[in-house]
User: Which sequence fits this backbone?
């Protein structure tokens, strides 16, 4: 029984504190034009805590020399900030209960709880699990709301994906695909699986221009058909 709780505790702590590699299959064409499977496209997503922290204190990530522009608007996102603080307080409460010394990052402080809880009774383990699960759930909600950016109809350009699930963050000039989890930014970083937003913008423009041309062709063909059928021009 208690081993199940410990496994659940470990999984929840991992989700909160460990980066997650996400593998996406990729396909290409060989010299004869046949579809072949390429090495998987692997993207490593930061831990949930790190993703929330990135919303609270956006690094901008692109240009280190750029200075923050003074503004009367507080930085970041209040929900993410409140959540980050709540987790800090919750973790601190467990640390005080067990007389532990808080570590320098929230992630390692949470992992420290995991080391300690194994020797506690099952009620205490359940209590900690309930806290961890609540934090995980709130992280997921905050992350989902923070990225409720415009949805566009152009399919994802990644080979083997092609789903209409691209999301654009106009403010940060970034994009991502919620199916294959590919990401695009102004400064591409292929090692981290981040591609050029300029290339994506070209793809979207080309696709939309082709769609408009195809729609115009379809309308023209329809007109010709009606003219043939009714023997007169139906402009
Ligand atoms: Zn995709």
Assistant:
């Amino acid at each position: 029984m208690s081993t199940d709780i410990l496994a659940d505790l470990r999984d929840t702590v991992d989700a909160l504190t460990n980066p997650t590699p996400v593998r996406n299959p990729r396909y290409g064409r060989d010299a004869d034009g046949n579809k072949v499977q390429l090495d998987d496209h692997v993207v490593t997503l930061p831990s949930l805590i790190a993703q929330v922290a990135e919303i609270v204190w956006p690094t901008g990530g692109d240009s280190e020399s750029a200075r923050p522009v003074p503004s009367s608007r507080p930085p970041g996102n209040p929900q993410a900030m409140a959540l980050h603080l709540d987790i800090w307080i919750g973790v601190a409460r467990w640390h005080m209960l067990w007389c532990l010394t808080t570590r320098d990052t929230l992630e390692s402080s949470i992992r420290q709880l995991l080391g300690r809880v194994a020797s506690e009774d099952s009620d205490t383990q359940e209590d900690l699990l309930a806290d961890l699960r609540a934090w995980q759930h709130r992280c997921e909600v905050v992350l989902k709301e923070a990225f409720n950016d415009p949805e566009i109809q152009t399919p994802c350009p990644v080979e083997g994906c092609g789903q209409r699930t691209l999301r654009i963050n106009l403010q940060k000039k970034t994009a991502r695909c919620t199916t294959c989890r590919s990401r695009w930014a102004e400064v591409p970083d292929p090692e981290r699986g981040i591609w050029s937003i300029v290339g994506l913008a070209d793809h979207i423009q080309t696709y939309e221009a082709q769609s408009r041309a195809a729609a115009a062709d379809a309308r023209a063909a329809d007109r010709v058909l009606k003219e043939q059928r009714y023997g007169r021009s139906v402009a």
Observations:
- The chain has two domains: 1-59+75-148, 150-235.
- DSSP finds six helices and six strands in the chain.
